Amino acid sequence: MSALATDAPAAIIAPGQPLLTVRGVKTYYGNIIALKGVDLDVNQGEIVTIIGANGAGKSTLMMTVFGSPRAREGRITFAGTDITQMPTHEIARLRISQSPEGRRVFPRMTVYENLQMGASINNFAHFDEDLARMFTLFPRLKERVDQRGGTLSGGEQQMLAIARALMARPKLLLLDEPSLGLAPLIVKQIFDAIRELNRSEGLTVFLVEQNAYHALKLAHRGYVMVNGVITMSGTGRALLADPQVRAAYLEGGHH
Amino acid sequence: MAATLDAQVPVRPAAGALLSRAVREGGFAALITLGLSFPILALRTEQNMANELVLVPRWSWVALLCIAVFIARFVQIYFDNKLTRTLLVLGCFTLLGGLGRAVNAAFDGFAATVFTIGLLLLIAGMVWERRVETAGVTTPLSPAAKARWAVVTRYAGPVALGFLAVYPMAMLALAGPGGSIKWIDNFGIQILIYVMLGWGLNIVVGLAGLLDLGYVAFYAVGAYSYALIATKVIPETFPALGVWAFWVCLPISGLLAALWGIILGFPVLRLRGDYLAIVTLAFGEIIRLVLINWVDFSNGYAGLSTIPRPSFFGIPFNASDTGFAAVFGLEFSPIYRTIFLYYVIFALALLTAYVTLRLRKLPVGRAWEALREDEIACRSLGINTTNTKLTAFAIGAMFGGFAGCFFAARQGFISPESFTFIESAQVLAIVVLGGAGSLVGVVVSSIALVGGFEILRELEFLKQIFGESFDPAQYRTLLFGLAMVVIMLWKPRGLVSTREPTAFLKERKTVSSSLVKEGHG
């Protein structure tokens, strides 16, 4: 466990320069190809979203960045380090944090213990300070601090999952479907929090979403994924206005 | 029986419907019991004088059982209050016991006493039900009494420890040197061995969530390490170590077991749940089969004997002039060794508990628990799941090794027979019934399962009811299964299912974790 303290001081990336680059990544589940050669950049200080239908490969891409499953071809670099073949826990130690799909909070551990788990990668340096920050960001978590993760509502669990990821002081935050199964009001709260983090702390965020409207409104740039291939990319605003995107992902009444 | 009961019950709204439902459900349960008990209970094969097997029907047993099940189901449906139910069921069962005595033997004084007790219980149940109906009370404990009880339970831990610390002395004082050996050895030491094994396995199963069906392998590694080193290595190399053999070998046994824990851990790192369970089961069997077949090494089925017993830190427990009794000016008696062994296993068990409690608050322990809850989330938080699993296996195995070393030293003889799958199953049952992850739960279920079986031997009075041929100890496995089913129905997460958080920000809140669903594999 002492290895927790050794975190490689990755090069400091200037805003606007690529932090995460994905080049020609192909991922397979057995013989089935899930990602058919994906290229993508996330620049320092950006919110980048990837939208697409169920089964397009969005979550697979996010998990491939995290090394499980591993890319069979292509290259993934983070802050200049090749992470394509790194074990998941070492990738996490480069300060990439993930709020996984389905939240995955620890159900029998309290909110406080969940947040401790997030901070363990830092060896609890700045734990109290970060805890206070999380409680400012998500006041609901402060009310629930000694309650077990599994007794929280869906929205609170999502807040906890994001806060847990933030406790590691990430350079890049990966969010997988934070709006899944949540009421519109809660989705708005969570997206507002992400926007606030990005604005005030310059946190780089890579967001996978099905809720295309909210995601594109929040993101600086977006990618559209269809069947394991990126078919379109552009600024969030441009994609929102694009007739094809509107027809495929926005018609049928998101606000 | 049912008719006499409902005659005294005050009429409630829809009582008729409730009554008919209770009778129907009770009858249904009794019918199922009839079907199930027919092959087991109704016919018994016995050898007659001509060495032939004859079928002995036991219809009265079947009838008694069906009536008992009917009553239990009837009362459960017809009455709401828990205390009423308990009193009525206990009363009816006692009456049935008296009936059994009257049928099997005669209606004598014993049967009359049983009948009286049963009737008193029934009357108490009816009186209590009347109070529930009229005064609206639901529990005999007032809120004030409950608060007082909460204070008492807070001190239960220290009190229990104190009790365990004075237990052998108290037994010695009560039963004398001859009579107390049974109570210290069969109850005290035996239960504490299982408590220690349970606490060791609790690290693997309860905290890290890795289902291990082969825990007995580490117990065997510890036992054979001590036995082989103490009988073969030490006499040939450092005979002077003789009296210290146990104390030298205890850490070695633990380390060897931990090593084997890691050896087992490596191939199963990628497995979870059922698959992991199968492989660990196989591992346990491999160790046992090697011990049986590698005769040069382990002496096979014959086992190893004349294993040196532990000394009192260099002073042996024997009748010689340098023995424990002579040195301390006592009259020689085997009880001193038994008492000493009790304290050794007590200390080892406390060490296990202390290490577990400490580790839970350290990153590695917290990582175990997080691993149990959600492995994928763990990895995404930068936890090295490989190391986490290996440390859990190694530390759990180490305590199994300590217990094994103690077992070998206590018995003086070991053979592969002592390390069969049923031992693993029993330790696992203790952990699961106690509530995975709970130290207190393991103690309670060890006392219930191990102590309960020993108690069965003491229940001579049951012969008065079921006849002379009745041997309660034979029903051990049946009761074991019954206890499992009942506890899993009544408390699906074990006796102590509340996970005690390791850290609080504000205050202790007890939100029972039984409300929380299990983490996904």
Instruction: Kindly name the structural category of chain A.
Output: alpha/beta
General shape of chain B:
globular
Main pleated sheet of chain B: 2 strands, antiparallel
Tally of helical segments of chain B: 20
Average pLDDT number of chain A: 89
Number of helices of chain A: 10
Find the CATH topology of the largest domain in chain A.
Answer: Rossmann fold
The shape of chain A is globular
What is the total number of structural domains of chain A?
2
SSE series of chain A: EEEHEEHEHHHHEHEHEEHH
Order of helices and strands of chain B: HHEEHHHHHHHHHHHHHHHHHH
CATH class of the largest domain in chain A, named Alpha Beta
> What integer is the average pLDDT of chain B?
84
> Sheet bearing the most strands of chain A, described?
6 strands, mixed
Question: How many beta-strand elements of chain B?
Answer: 2
Helical amount of chain B:
over 70%
Distance between the termini of chain B: 50 Å
Multimerization status: heterodimer
The value of Rg of chain B in angstroms is 27 Å
Unreliable spans of chain A: 1-9
What does this structure look like?
- Chain B: InterPro entries: ABC_transp_permease, LivHM_N, LivM-like.
- The complex is a heterodimer of chains A (255) and B (521).
- Chain A is of the alpha/beta class and 255 residues long.
- Helices cover 36% and strands 26% of the residues of chain A.
- In chain A, the strands form 2 sheets. In chain A, strands 6-7-8-3-9-10 form a 6-stranded mixed sheet, sandwiched between helices. Chain A has a 4-stranded antiparallel sheet with strand order 2-1-4-5, covered by helices on one side.
- In chain A, a hairpin with a 2-residue loop joins strand 1 and strand 2.
- In chain A, helix 3 packs parallel to helix 6.
- The radius of gyration of chain A is 18 Å and the shape is globular.
- The N terminus of chain A is likely disordered.
- Chain B has 521 residues and is mostly helical.
- Chain B has 2 domains: 144 residues, no CATH class; 330 residues, no CATH class.
- In chain B, helix 8 packs parallel to helix 10 and helix 9 packs antiparallel against helix 16.
- The N terminus and C terminus of chain B are likely disordered.
- At the A-B interface, helix 2 and helix 3 of A face helix 14 and helix 15 of B.
